[in-house]
Amino acid sequence: MARTIIYGGTGGIGRATAHALRARGHALHLVARDAGALDALAAELGETSVTAGDVTDPGLFARASAEAGEALSGLVYAVGTINLKPVGRLKPAEIEADFRINALGAFLAVQAAAPGLKAGAGEGTSGVVLFSTVAAAQGFAAHASVAMAKGAVEGLALSLAAELAPQVRVNVVAPSLTRTNLARSLTANETVANGIAAMHAVPRLGRPEDTGALAAFLVSDEAGWITGQVIGVDGGRSRLRTKG
């Protein structure tokens, strides 16, 4: 059975996506740094194989694609960074690191998986989901590094969607602030979290399941006519202002 690769599979959004895809009957191949966490999640999900490694290692992507199998039904790159600093405090090395993890990693993941994704498409399509952020479309202070990196992801996805059509569909999910371990520095303080939540038309922070459900849908055959899109899962933050 063709598998869907999920990079960052043990993270908050990656894990939620894995559960949503398994509920739809997808076999999975998870990629993450923590081998123990991978094995535990694979045992929990069933029909799941794993590759342990870090996305800053260029050799990881070919290895993960090979271990996932010759035919792939989808790819989800649920890897990201949150590096929020004023422009005067950002160092070039930090910007390069954000770009490497978010944009270059996404490119290398799709590049390595493209033959398998085309093989797995059969007479239909396979689905790729990359992740951006609401901050790529909205101007938020102290978000220069992550907004640049995720903006590159959106440009990459549009190019790939055109180049890999019709066998492979490529879409982007752009969440607002979501309660994950990665975002703990922003969500651990409930006063801060509630203040950010109130900025949304639906006044709460995101849950991993919100984003995972959409990612799973975009990989599935039900989204067979959706490609080249950037879709917000953001409580309306990117489009709506309910006050002032």
Automatic annotation (TrEMBL):
<protein>
    <submittedName>
        <fullName>SDR family oxidoreductase</fullName>
    </submittedName>
</protein>
<dbReference type="InterPro" id="IPR057326">
    <property type="entry name" value="KR_dom"/>
</dbReference>
<dbReference type="InterPro" id="IPR051122">
    <property type="entry name" value="SDR_DHRS6-like"/>
</dbReference>
<dbReference type="Pfam" id="PF13561">
    <property type="entry name" value="adh_short_C2"/>
</dbReference>
<comment type="similarity">
    <text>Belongs to the short-chain dehydrogenases/reductases (SDR) family.</text>
</comment>
<feature type="domain" description="Ketoreductase">
    <location>
        <begin position="2"/>
        <end position="178"/>
    </location>
</feature>
<keyword id="KW-0560">Oxidoreductase</keyword>
<dbReference type="InterPro" id="IPR036291">
    <property type="entry name" value="NAD(P)-bd_dom_sf"/>
</dbReference>
<dbReference type="InterPro" id="IPR002347">
    <property type="entry name" value="SDR_fam"/>
</dbReference>
<dbReference type="GO" id="GO:0016491">
    <property type="term" value="F:oxidoreductase activity"/>
</dbReference>
